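Notebook B, p. 112. Complex prediction, attempt 2.
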Amino acid sequence: MAIEAARFSPSLAAAAFLARRPPPALFPFSLRRRIPLLHVLAGSSGGDGRVVALSSSELRKRRGLSSSSGAADPASDGDEKLRSLRRLFARPDVAIDAYIVPSQDAHQSEFIAECFMRRAYLTGFTGSAGTAVVTKDKAALWTDGRYFLQAEKELTHEWTLMRSGNHGVPTTSEWLNDVLPSGCRVGIDPFLFSFDAAEELKDSISNKNHELVLVRGMNLVDEIWGDARPEPPKEPTRVHDIKYAGIDVPSKLSFIRSHLTENGCDAVVISMLDEVAWLLNMRGSDVPHSPVFYSYLIVEVSTATLFVDSNKVSEDVLEHLEKAGVKLKPYEAIVSEVERLAEKGAKLWLDSSSVNAAIITAFKSSCDKHMKKKGKAGEKVEKEAYSDEPTGVENGALNAVYNVSPVTLAKSVKNEAEIEGMKNSHLRDAAALAEFWCWLEDEVCKSVPLTEVQVAEKLLEFRKKQDGFIETSFDTISGYGANGAVIHYRPTPEDCSSVGSDNLFLLDSGAQYIDGTTDITRTVHFGEPSPRQKECFTRVLQGHIALDQAVFPERTPGFVLDVLARSSLWKIGLDYRHGTGHGVGAALNVHEGPQSISYRYGNLTALQKGMIVSNEPGYYEDNSFGIRIENLLLIKELNLANSFGGISYLGFERLTFVPIQINWVNDYHEEVWDKVSPLLSGDTRDWLWKNTRPILDVTHRYSHAQDIA
Amino acid sequence: MAIEAARFSPSLAAAAFLARRPPPALFPFSLRRRIPLLHVLAGSSGGDGRVVALSSSELRKRRGLSSSSGAADPASDGDEKLRSLRRLFARPDVAIDAYIVPSQDAHQSEFIAECFMRRAYLTGFTGSAGTAVVTKDKAALWTDGRYFLQAEKELTHEWTLMRSGNHGVPTTSEWLNDVLPSGCRVGIDPFLFSFDAAEELKDSISNKNHELVLVRGMNLVDEIWGDARPEPPKEPTRVHDIKYAGIDVPSKLSFIRSHLTENGCDAVVISMLDEVAWLLNMRGSDVPHSPVFYSYLIVEVSTATLFVDSNKVSEDVLEHLEKAGVKLKPYEAIVSEVERLAEKGAKLWLDSSSVNAAIITAFKSSCDKHMKKKGKAGEKVEKEAYSDEPTGVENGALNAVYNVSPVTLAKSVKNEAEIEGMKNSHLRDAAALAEFWCWLEDEVCKSVPLTEVQVAEKLLEFRKKQDGFIETSFDTISGYGANGAVIHYRPTPEDCSSVGSDNLFLLDSGAQYIDGTTDITRTVHFGEPSPRQKECFTRVLQGHIALDQAVFPERTPGFVLDVLARSSLWKIGLDYRHGTGHGVGAALNVHEGPQSISYRYGNLTALQKGMIVSNEPGYYEDNSFGIRIENLLLIKELNLANSFGGISYLGFERLTFVPIQINWVNDYHEEVWDKVSPLLSGDTRDWLWKNTRPILDVTHRYSHAQDIA
C-alpha cells in the first residue's frame, strides 16, 4: 500500500489523467483554457463569410447541454443513460465490469467537436475537464477545483463527484482498485487514450488484478446516444497560403522523411491535428478556436496519406495535396492502414504520448501476427514478454521507434513567413484592442452598465472588423473584481458581473487570423486602485519586464527563466499558481509545445530561436481581484559584443503592442514619495526622489483612466 | 555501439568517475578544491598547539611526491612499480587482467591522508583528481583539464595520459572494453569505490563480457609500496564542545534512531567522515583542511559502535562516547561487524552512493548465506537474479534500504549554536582579512615584490593570530592576472607570479576555526583596471547582489536561483563554467551537500532554513584575468507581510563581512558618464546622470587602492 500511495498521489495522478495531453508539466495553461463548452462567441460565421465552428454557448443552446436547460436536470434521463450503458456491459462482445469515459477526442485536442463530448452527454456535467467512471452499481465523475460548483449543480444524485486534488480523494485507478472485487474487466475506448495513458492505466489497475479491456468497434456512449448524437463536423478545409506558411508541403515532407531515414523508419503516424495542419499547409474549422480538421496523416518514405472525410476536401485543396504527392483515404481507415504497414514489415515512428492506443495496439498485434507467420515469432514475442517496462513500450523490440513526433519541434520553430504573419496579425489585433479599450474607458466613465460578457462580445466586434479575422483563439476570460481572481474564469450571460470603476478588470483574449494567432492579457482599473492593488500590479509588471528583458545562452530550458518573472512577487511573499509562458502556434493552436516557461522543472526543452512564448505573470487575491499582464514574445538570436563559450545568446522580441496601464506605477511611486520622504534626509531622500519620478512618456496612454485616477 | 556511446559520453562518465562523491551535479566546486597535495600551509602545528595535518607541500617534501623531487622523474622507478604490480596480477588469489587505481580513500573524502594516495604513488602524478588503469601491457591515467600540463611533466613514458573531457577521449570503461580481449577480469579494491560506482563500472564493462573482480584482503598498490608506505594517520581526536555543537550526542543518536524505526531498519552504516564527526560531536585532524578522523559508525536501535583506531581516542573522548552509549571497535572490524549484522537478520540502512562496495557486497553475500541457511534462500536469491537494475541495487529485496544517509540533511541544517559559531568565526576571519588587505595594499603601493605564494602565506599568518584558528579549509587560490582565470589555480613556490598593480588579483581562501568554517573570495586591482575589467566586475557583482537579495518560497531547489547570479553576465554574452553556491559545514568540511546553487538541474534538494551556502559568481577571461566574489550566506525564514499559499518565504543572511572593492563600479559609472553623456540630451541625459552617481558611503573602503585608481 505504501508503494501504491506514493505512485498515485491523488493530485499528480488526477492532473495527469484529466489533462493527458498536453501533460501538465509542459502546459500549465492547458487546463485553464480547455473550455470548449461555454460561450462568448456569438456568431457562427467569421467576418469573411468562412464557416466558423460554433461557440460553446451556441452549442449548449442547440444541444441541450446547458446546466439551465435540460440534460443535467436531476429529473431528466440521467438514470436511463446509466441503465443503458450498464446493459451494454453484459453484451458478450463487451463483457466488462466498468467503463471509463474521458473528455478527450482521438487526437488529444484542447478543443473538441460536439459529437466527441461523450463525457458531457453521459454525465450532464459540461465542464471542459473531467473523467467519468461507471461500474455496475456506481458512477463517479472526477473534475478539478474550477468545476466543483458547476459539477454539483449539473450531476444527478446517481453520480458521485470526486474532487480531484482534494486531500484523500483517490484517482480513478485507486477508486477502481477499491470498489471492484479483484480480477475485474475495465473497459475503455482505445481511441480516447494515448498509448502511454492506456499503459499507465493498465499498470495501475493490475495491482488489483483488473484487466484493461480495449473495447473496439464501438464507443458505448455513442451506442446509447444513438440518433441524438450530433454528426461529426463536416466543415470544409482550406489551403493555408504559402505566403503565410513559408515552406511548401514537399519541403516539409522531405524534412520529415530525412528524419525517418536517419532513424531507420519507414513511416510515421501523425495524429495531433495541429501537426497534420502544419505539415500539409492546410487549415479547417472542425472545432472552436483552433483552425484544424479531424484527420490522421501517415508519411512514408515515398508516399503520404491523409485520412480525412473526403467531403471536407474541395477541388483546390485536392490539387494542393496531389501536387505534394499526398493521397486521401477515409478518416476511419487509419487502423487498417497501420495494420497493412505492419504486415508489410514497415518500421513505424510512433509518438506514444499522442498517438492513441487503438492505433498502436493494432500495429503491435498485427506485427506479432506477421512475425509468427514468418516463423520469427518465437524470439520476438518472448522478448516482449520479458521487457515489462512501466510504460509498456518496448524500445527496439518490435518494428517501431517510440519517440516524440518529428513535427513537434519543427512546428514550434517558426520560419520567416510565419514570423511575418504573426507580427502582422498582432498589429491588426492591437488596433482592435486599442479601439476596444478606448471604447470601454468611455463607457465606464459614462457609467454605462456593461457585463463581463457584453464587454467580451464588444471586443469580438472590434476584432471582426480586422482583415483576416477568423474567430477567437479561446473563450475570452473577462473578469471584473473577484472574478479576475479565478484564473480559469468564464463569465456566462446568466451569471456574471458588471464592469465598473471600483475594482480591477482582467481581460485575457486572443484571435485566430488568416496569418497568425494572438493571445493577450491586460488588467486595468477605471477608478482609483487600492495601495495593495498598486503594489501587486507593480510587482507583476516588474516580473513581466524582467522576463521580457532576459538574455540567455542557447540550450537554456524555459524553467530557468521562470524565476525572473516571480522574484519581485516573492520578495513580498506573493506568487501565482500557473506557469509563466506557453508556446503559441502560427495561425494554429494558441497552446502548443514543446517549450514552456514554468516553475515545474520537468520540461527540459531548450528555448530556441524562432519559437514563440507567452510572458504572463500574474497575481490573484481570492475573492478580491486578479492581475495578469501577457504579451507574446518571439525568441531571437542576439548580436552581443561577447559570446562566451562560442555559443549563441538569445533574447525576446515583443509581438504584442497594446499599452500597459503603467500610470499605476507612477501613482504608486508618488504615494511612496509622499509617505516615505518625510522620514528621510540627505542622500537617501535624494535617492528616493530619483527613484519615484514618473515615467513621463507613458503616463498619458490611458487618458480617461488617468483622469479618474 | 550507438547505445554505448550515448550511455558513456566521455565528459559525463569521466567527470562522474573522477569525482564519484560528491557527484559533479551536486558539487560543481568539489573538483576545483580536491587539491590535497599542494602546499600553502607552512606549519605542522596549529596556533593553539593542537597537532595539525601536514600541508600538502610539506607532504610532498617529506614523501618525495613532488614533481621536482623524485618519484615522477622519468628516470625513477616508475617502470619497476608497474612491473611489480603486473606480477601481482598473476597470483592465483588475484588472477586479474587489469587493475583500476582511483584517487579516493574508503570514505569518498575530498581531502585524503597520504597513505591513501595510491594513485599518486603508482603513477608519480600528484594532482588531486585522476584515475590510473593498468593492464598487462598498458598503463593509462585519466585526469581533467586542470592537470594536463602537470601530468605530462610527472608521468613516465610508460603511461598514456587520457585527457578527460577532450573530444574522443574514452572513459576508463570504454578504454578497457577497447584494449582488452573479451571476457577479461578487471580488479578493483572494493573499499575505494562506492557501491553505486562499482555497480556502474560492472555494468559498463559487461558490454565486453569483462568481469569486475573485487580484490579483497589487500590493495595491490600497498603491496608494492611496502615499507615505504606512510603509516595511516594517528592524530588524536577531540570532543567538539557542546557550546559549538549545540545538540548532544544522545539527542542526535535518538534522532537517527527514530528515522531507523520509521523505515523499519535495525541499523545504519555511516561512512562519510564528516557525518561521523557531526553525529558524535568529535573532531580530528587525520587529513588536511577537514577536521575529521578515519572511522566508520554503526548506529543500531539500542547501541552504537565507532570503528576507529583506539590510539586516537583519549580518556576524555572515551568518556564522552561512553556517556552517549557508543562503543569502540577497531577501524578494520567494520566488514566483519556488517557480516555479523547480516547473520543476525538485521535490516540495514545503506547509502550506496557513499558506503563502499567492500561493506555493501560483504553484507549482501552474508545475507544470502544466512538466508540459504535458513532455507529461505530459494525465493530471495532467485529474486535477486532477476532484478537486474542498472544500479544493481535491489530495493526492497534483501535486508536493506538503500537511501541517502539520514545524517546528510540533518547536518546541513544548522542549529543555533552552530550558527552562532559560524557567525563568530566569520567575524574573526574578517578581522584577519582586514589586516591582510590593509597590509597587502601597503606592500603593493610600496612596490614590494611579493609572489602569490608569499601573499597566501602572509594571509595564513594573520589568520593564525585569531582565536580558535586551526588550519586552512582548503589550499588558498591566490591568482594574479592570467592565473586568476584558472578556476582551480594553485600557485607553487617554484612557479608563480608576483602580485602587482597592473592586473586583477583573485584570492579565494578559508579557514577552520574551533567554532566554524570560512570560505571567501575577493578580487581587487591595485592600479587602474581596464574598462573591460570594470564592466565584468560590475556584472559579477550585480549577480552576487541579485542572489544575495533573493527571496524564495520554501521547497525551492537551489538551481532555480542560479540564473539570478548569471543574468547580468548573460546580458552581454558572458558566463562562468562553475556553480554559484555549495553547502558549507559548521566547523567541518568546507564543501558539503546536499544543497547547491548550480546551473545543473539534477539537484532537487530544497534550500532550507538553517542551511549555509556560498554565493560566488565569477567571470574568467582566458590568459587575461579572473573575477570571483564570494560570501557565505545563511538561509533564514523571512517575516513578510504576505505568505501566499500559506508557506514560508526564505532569504539570506550574510555571514561574511569583508569589503568588496566597490569603487570600481563608481569608476566605471564615471567613465560611462564621461563617454556617453555628450551624446545625450534632455530626459535621457538626466537619467544617465542619476544612474551614474557614485555610491558615496562605500567609496572610501579601499583607501590606498582608491588613491591609485
